[in-house]
Design brief:
By secondary structure, the chain is an alpha/beta fold. It contains 9 helices and 9 strands. The strands form 2 sheets. The protein has a 7-stranded mixed beta sheet with strand order 3-2-1-4-5-9-8, with helices on both faces. α3 packs across α9 and α8 runs antiparallel to α9. The longest helix is centred in the last third of the chain and has 21 residues.
Length: 271
């Protein structure tokens, strides 16, 4: 399954106006479970970092997390970087139109990234599963951070992340074709972070049993339908009206419970 064509279709729908773009961010905040986990971690970090801070979104994509950060605290200065220059230009246009003064964007390849300033918080959400040279990226981010700064990572785990399944006997296939790895082992990613220079790490599973249900209802099934036929775009509002409250409950349970296993990982590392 390829996400990029779907992202382009969504962009054509929601990028027509500032209002639509903000609505899109709100929908992602509600439906996308990883957003719940990332927002929770940001809120925890923000309790003791309420003054002026420099924040990097490494792999900023649509800019949804930058929108959340920029609204949460106007003292925070946020830089979004992404390897896709068209997405950088798209975000620049939107945030300028939306009158955000604490946000900047620049194109960057994280395997060669060197920040012009030191950051107090770095986000890498849905990024590391796309990059083969992960230790190099961890080293670059480490060099770009202040002492005591935190790196926050959301990525698939090796417990079925990327919705990996056996396609044929002996052949494993991922639901998401753009991933270079299907998921991290919870100990492996922390070892790589320490190898890159981080002094302390912690990690826990996301997408436990409630998250798996939420993912299938809110993301997997709609994506399969839209890939089958673009006509299903017209039916999605009605589909989400039927599933919305149940998905909401599953998302709440997933961020509230401790999971012994899960298809996602939330990882924190401190310099």
């Amino acid at each position: 399954m390829q996400y990029d064509p779907i992202k382009k279709d969504l962009g054509n729908i929601f990028n027509k106006s500032v209002f639509r773009r903000k609505l899109f961010y709100r929908l992602l905040d509600i439906l996308l479970l990883r957003t719940w986990h990332v927002h929770k971690a940001i809120r925890q970090w923000g309790k003791s970092n309420n003054d002026k801070k420099n924040i990097l979104d490494a792999g900023s994509g649509f800019g949804q997390y930058i929108y959340y950060l920029a609204r949460k605290n106007k003292k925070w200065q946020i830089l979004g970087v992404d390897v896709k220059e068209d997405q950088i230009e798209d975000c620049r246009r939107f945030f300028k139109k939306a009158n955000f003064s604490n946000v900047n964007f620049q194109p960057a390849d994280l395997t060669r990234f060197t920040g012009s300033q030191l950051f107090d918080l770095v986000l890498a959400v849905d990024v590391m599963e796309h990059i083969e040279e992960d230790v190099t990226v961890f080293e670059n981010l480490h060099h770009s951070m202040n002492s005591g700064a935190m790196l926050l990572i959301s990525t698939p785990s090796d417990q079925g992340g990327s919705d990996v399944h056996e396609h044929e006997p002996g052949q494993v296939k991922s639901f998401i074709g753009e991933h270079v790895r299907d998921g991290y082992n919870i100990k492996e990613i922390q070892q790589k972070l320490r190898k890159a220079g981080f002094s302390n790490t912690s990690a826990h599973y996301s997408y436990g049993w409630p998250g798996k249900i939420s993912w299938k209802l809110s993301m997997k099934l709609p994506i399969l339908l839209v890939n089958y036929s673009k006509a299903f775009f017209l039916l999605l509002p009605f589909y989400y009206l039927l599933t919305f409250w149940f998905v909401l409950i599953m998302n709440f349970l997933d961020v509230s419970l401790n999971h012994s296993t899960g298809t996602g990982l939330i990882v924190k590392a401190w310099k």
